[in-house]
Write a structure and sequence with these properties.
4-stranded mixed sheet; 498 residues; globular; single chain; alpha/beta; 10 strands
């Protein structure tokens, strides 16, 4: 009898929590009606989510709520477009649900970077502001050895409570009197350089010599996974406390931190020669070449050669013209993901102690680099001194227009142009004269793109392997600026081999 009563009650509760019938699609409302009902309906939906959590003991998004939002996503998109902060006021559960976030992510990403950065820190500090309670003078002090800053910092922080590290803390170098924010900034700077120290075998420089990628051979260091976890802690802690680091990672590694899938385009900065080989395969018909490639590859580690299959039984599967795109993608994933999977996992374990995955996803790769390392000061005078132009007539106005446009750009826009054309937003040590390409040093080059009369205006294009920006000969400086801005905004998150 008791069991029957309990079941009946639970069923009644479940029925009472059945999602209400949705309102008409948003196209049947005018904006006045949207303004009137948006906050109320979102609050009711939030309450429905909390009731489902309580009834079924869930900590994630209740399936009934997810189903309701997906079924009526057009209406809720309208609400979010009207006020993106609704996501943070009523729909925190959406942030941790990848399926639901895909519905709204384009709206959030369309907001200015500074606005998203503001939201990021508001949510990051919502429950645990870094300075602690007002008037709280207590500060945790961590003592590290300057001569062994990596190991001593690792020992001090790996065992520390992450919630304590989120509060105000200080670092003091052993046998030194200095303490305070200045010392902490110095510690972050020195530590970020030590993370890349080749003696620890954690990271290796990419082909451009500017960005770094996890070392697939890091296991030569028996403590490498603990060190990667600590490196992730250091990077996450720096972002949490808004300290910039003197480190730049590859685009593919930033994508791993953001939880985004990598693609073969991302391999350029890691291995330009490999990218050229993949480019050749994709742009040539391999069916008549007799290459006899299979879905496997030979790798060499410490003088030992090993055959790695890209797919089960890949050694016996021939790559054809129809399957070459899959081959290139799998080979790139091996280089950028499979070979360093355990290193990435350990780094993320430490990183997510301070920066949740759902919040860092508010940024793209270039923005994450800016969040971590800041905007480099880019000198247009140095850029101009070491650049080349090809295909343009001597004295062509577009050459001067190009530099005038760059002079008028902000540092962030200049960094975006550099990222678009070279694959990195950073200038190497020594300036533009040290830009490297597929083989060695490769100057920044602007090449003319010919256009047929009456043809629609083309946007700028780039070949990052060769630091090459391809520009049509625009008719005015204003047209050049407009097209360049469109290119860096819409084409700065990836490219296709051409």
């Amino acid at each position: 009898s008791t069991a029957t009563t309990t079941t009946a009650t639970t069923t009644a509760d479940t029925q009472s929590l059945k999602a209400p019938s949705p309102p008409p699609p948003p196209r049947q409302f005018d904006m006045h009606m949207i303004d009137l009902c948006a906050d109320r309906l979102c609050a009711v939906t939030h309450g429905y989510h909390l009731c489902c959590q309580a009834l079924w003991g869930r900590t994630d998004t209740a399936p009934q709520v997810a189903e309701f939002l997906l079924a009526h996503k057009a209406l809720f998109r309208c609400f979010v477009e009207r006020d993106p902060l609704i996501i943070f006021r009523h729909f925190h559960f959406i942030l941790v649900n990848r399926q639901l976030m895909r519905v709204f992510m384009d709206i959030l990403m369309a907001q200015p970077f500074e606005k998203r950065r503001e939201w990021f820190y508001e949510q990051l500090y919502a429950d645990n502001p870094p300075e602690g309670a007002p008037g709280d003078g207590n500060t945790n002090v961590y003592t590290v050895k300057r001569a062994r800053v990596f190991e001593s910092s690792c020992g001090a922080l790996l065992g520390a409570d992450p919630d304590m590290l989120k509060q105000k803390f200080s670092v003091q170098f052993e046998d030194e009197a200095g303490i305070g924010n200045g010392v902490k900034r110095e510690w972050f700077h020195v530590l970020s350089q030590e993370i890349l120290n080749p003696d620890y075998a954690l990271f290796v420089p990419s082909a451009d010599g500017v960005n770094f990628q996890p070392n697939s051979c890091s296991h030569i260091n028996p403590d490498h996974l603990n060190y990667f976890r600590f490196a992730g802690q250091a990077v996450g802690l720096a972002i949490y406390h808004k300290h910039l680091l003197d480190v730049c990672f590859t685009r593919s590694f930033y994508k791993h931190l953001l939880g985004r899938p990598i693609s073969y385009q991302d391999v350029v900065s890691i291995d330009a020669q490999f990218a050229q080989s993949m480019d050749w395969i994709l742009n040539n018909d391999i069916s008549e070449l007799g290459l006899d490639m299979t879905f496997c590859v030979e790798t060499e580690m410490f003088g030992k050669t090993e055959v790695v299959e890209l797919i089960p039984g890949g050694a016996d599967i021939i790559v054809t013209e129809e399957t070459k795109h899959a081959y290139v993608q799998l080979l790139s994933e091996l280089k950028m993901t499979r070979a360093i999977r355990s290193q990435i996992a350990s780094f993320l374990e430490g990183f997510h102690q301070f920066v949740p995955a759902y919040l860092i996803a508010l940024f793209d790769e270039e923005e994450l680099e800016q969040l971590l390392s800041g905007i480099p000061e880019i000198s247009v005078a140095d850029w101009r001194q070491h650049a080349c132009f090809t295909g343009f007539a001597e004295g062509a106005p577009i050459i001067e227009w190009f530099w005038e446009v760059l002079e008028s750009f902000t540092q962030a826009q200049r960094a975006s142009v550099l990222q678009f054309a070279t694959g990195t937003s950073r200038v190497p040590i020594g300036g533009f004269r040290n830009l490297s390409g597929a083989q060695s040093r490769q100057p920044f080059t602007v090449s003319k793109v010919d256009m047929d009369p009456g043809q629609p205006m083309k946007l700028p294009m780039a070949s990052t392997c060769f630091n090459l920006l391809r520009l049509p000969e625009y008719h005015s400086k204003e047209e050049l600026e407009r097209c360049l801005l469109i290119a860096i905004k819409c084409g700065g998150q990836g490219f296709e081999f051409a």
